[in-house]
Design a protein that fits this description.
By secondary structure, the protein is an alpha/beta fold. It has two domains: 134 residues, Aspartate Aminotransferase, domain 1, CATH 3.90.1150.10; 236 residues, Aspartate Aminotransferase, domain 2 (3-Layer(aba) Sandwich), CATH 3.40.640.10. 42% of the residues lie in helices and 16% in strands. The chain has a seven-stranded mixed sheet with strand order 4-10-9-8-7-5-6, sandwiched between helices. The longest helix has 19 residues. It is globular, with a radius of gyration of 23 Å. The chain starts with 9 loop residues before the first helix and ends with a helix. The chain binds pyridoxal-5'-phosphate (PLP). Pyridoxal-5'-phosphate (PLP) binds next to helix 4. Its cofactor is pyridoxal 5'-phosphate. Pfam families: Aminotran_1_2. Pathway: Porphyrin-containing compound metabolism; protoporphyrin-IX biosynthesis; 5-aminolevulinate from glycine: step 1/1. It catalyses: succinyl-CoA + glycine + H(+) = 5-aminolevulinate + CO2 + CoA.
Length: 425
């Protein structure tokens, strides 16, 4: 079978023109093939034609914030689970996909967040989408109060809940939230959906404040702790654990793919809320369960993260050191209360070019964050130093940023063209 040529359906033309438009706007996304070197994390290997053995690259943009994905015990747990139970789960949780590992991991997560029960989903995205859509279609008249900056997965669930009403409140603005709650009919079932750490700006929600409003206006709370689990709180239970307010949140959602370094998503809540979602959420029921290797690795990872605080502590020390070095070199960054270090660039093309040049000229990788992930004009590099970024790696990255941000006109200094002219003169 060959390619379908001269396809007459308008969708073919639509794809063509939409892609052209994305390219013209400088938003076309290309993958950077980087193979992680498990034993040398955060070093990765980039395939380059000129270097047969590959080129080493320092990655500054991984969401495996603590490097849990390369911890030998975590890797061994995955291998042991494959040997014991095979490569795939073999079915949905109701058919043949529940192993003792799944049950143990759900109990572990419930205990981490101080909740009665937990439920695994195939990803953090699916846990948000499936849970919110199911809750918001469960009774007539739901009103969902959603933070303006909520993640696409929450928005997908909220938008997919036909028949419910959505009220967007200004980002982290409790006065606006309260005004909107006060306007809503007292008897309507209400839910407030928000995140603890907003991953692109690195700012945090006032969880206690939002929970107090929820109590005042009889709303339930749904908190996404995706960028916080593993990193904040005594045992890595997230910002709600750190602030001692986890018991005030009705549903805490998280991922196993970032701070825990593996894969999968989950919610924790009261036994009956979890049982309700287990029994009714389409995105839980009708998909093959997470494979044993993933669940086994995640279980080991969560247990280690709970028991061993040193990776968290080291990560924050590294983040602070990196910020100090950026400051000393005059490189602008947004000061955040979290582990996320955004370096503002302000233009999609420049952002992509700086990221590209960091990689090709300096062997440093930082993802360019462009529209639609962030608003136009706020394009940035998003850096997440981790426990294993060394002082030398930081020096090299700071030096590279210092040169490139000046050459690309992001900060005052001589551009590449000016340097050429000076050299020629
Ligand atoms: C705030 C937030 N929630 C949910 C998700 C989805 O999590 P996962 O990557 O496990 O699907 C992400 C992913 O980046 C996220 O940033």
């Amino acid at each position: 079978m060959g390619l379908i040529k001269n396809a007459r359906h308008p969708f073919y033309e639509h794809c063509h023109s939409a892609l052209n438009e994305i390219r013209q706007q400088g938003r076309y996304r290309t993958f950077t093939p980087l193979a992680r070197l498990a034993e040398r994390f955060p070093l990765y290997e980039e395939e380059v034609a000129a270097v047969p053995e590959g080129r080493e690259v320092v990655v500054w943009s991984t969401n495996d914030y603590l490097g849990m994905g390369v911890v030998p015990e975590v890797q061994e747990a995955a291998i042991a689970a494959i040997r014991e139970h095979g490569a795939g789960a073999g079915g949905t949780r109701n058919i043949a996909g529940t192993s003792p590992l799944h049950t143990q991991l759900e109990a572990e997560l419930a205990s981490l967040h101080g909740k009665e029960a937990g439920l695994l989903f195939v990803s953090g995205y699916v846990s948000n989408q499936a849970s919110l859509q199911t809750i918001l279609t469960s009774m007539p008249g739901w009103i969902c109060f959603s933070d303006r900056m909520n993640h696409a997965s929450m928005i997908a669930g909220i938008k997919g809940a036909r028949g419910s009403q959505t009220v967007i409140f200004e980002h982290n603005d409790l006065a606006d939230l309260e005004a909107k709650l006060a306007e809503a009919p007292a008897e309507a079932p209400k839910l407030i959906a928000f995140e603890s750490v907003y991953s692109m700006d690195g700012d945090m929600a006032d969880i206690a404040g939002i929970c107090a409003l929820a109590r005042k206006y009889n709303a339930i709370t749904y908190l996404d702790e995706v960028h916080a689990v593993g990193l904040y709180g005594e045992e890595g239970g997230g910002v709600s654990q750190r602030d001692g307010v986890a018991d005030q949140v009705d549903i805490i959602e998280g991922t196993l793919a970032k701070g825990f370094g593996v894969h999968g998503g989950y919610i924790t809540a009261s036994a009956e809320i979890v049982d309700f979602l287990r029994s009714t959420a389409s995105g839980f029921i009708f998909t093959t369960a997470l494979p044993p290797a993933v669940v086994g690795a995640a279980l080991t990872s969560v247990r280690k993260v709970r028991a061993e605080g040193w990776r968290r502590e080291k990560m924050f020390e590294r983040v602070n050191t990196f910020r100090q070095r950026l400051r000393a070199a005059g490189i602008p960054f947004t000061m955040t209360p979290s582990h996320i270090v955004p370096v503002p660039i302000g233009d999609a093309e420049t952002c992509k070019r700086i990221s590209r040049r960091l990689l090709t000229e300096y062997g440093q990788y930082a993802t360019p964050i462009n529209y639609p992930t962030v608003a136009k004009g706020t394009e940035r590099l998003r850096l997440t130093p981790g426990p294993f970024h060394t002082d030398e790696m930081m020096d090299e990255m700071v030096r590279a940023l210092s040169v490139l941000l000046r050459e690309e006109g992001v900060i005052p200094g001589r551009s590449a063209a000016e340097r050429q002219t000076e050299k020629a003169a």
